[in-house]
Amino acid sequence: MRPRALTGIRSVEITSRCNLACRYCLHPIMPRPKLDMTEAIWERVKAWVQHFVDAGTQGEINLAGVGEPTLHPHLARYCLEMRELIGPTVPCSSPPTARA
Ligand code: SF4
Question: pTM, whole model, 2 decimals?
Answer without folding.
Answer: 0.87
